[in-house]
Amino acid sequence: MDAEHQHSGEEKKPEHFGMNEFSDVLSEEHADEWRPLFATADCCVTIMATLEEALRDPHFVERGLFAHRVAGPTGATMPALPVPIDPQFRDDAGAVKVVPKLGGDKL
Hints:
Largest sheet: 3 strands, mixed
Structural class: alpha+beta
Number of domains: 2
Helix content: 25-40%
Radius of gyration: 22 Å
Low-confidence stretches: none
Strand content: 5-15%
Shape: elongated
Order of helices and strands: EEHHHHEEE
Strand order of the largest sheet: 4-3-5
Number of strands: 5
Number of helices: 4
């Protein structure tokens, strides 16, 4: 380890890392570098994906998780999770749902 990660002349053990130090070490590599390491490790880790990465994730694509779209008041659409998530209760993937106006659903 480098001098930054040493304490009193001895190497710091991982269990003594604080959150800032842990974050610093993780940020030194891209998530693609960490994935194979964590896949074989006996630890609980989740790498957060960006929306763009999630939209391309093979597992999500295969399940049609983001095949649905929702339209805002301007007509612009965006990917949306189907609700409910269970496929047997979903609407057709090609249908675009329109978001109700804010406060428009009040009686």
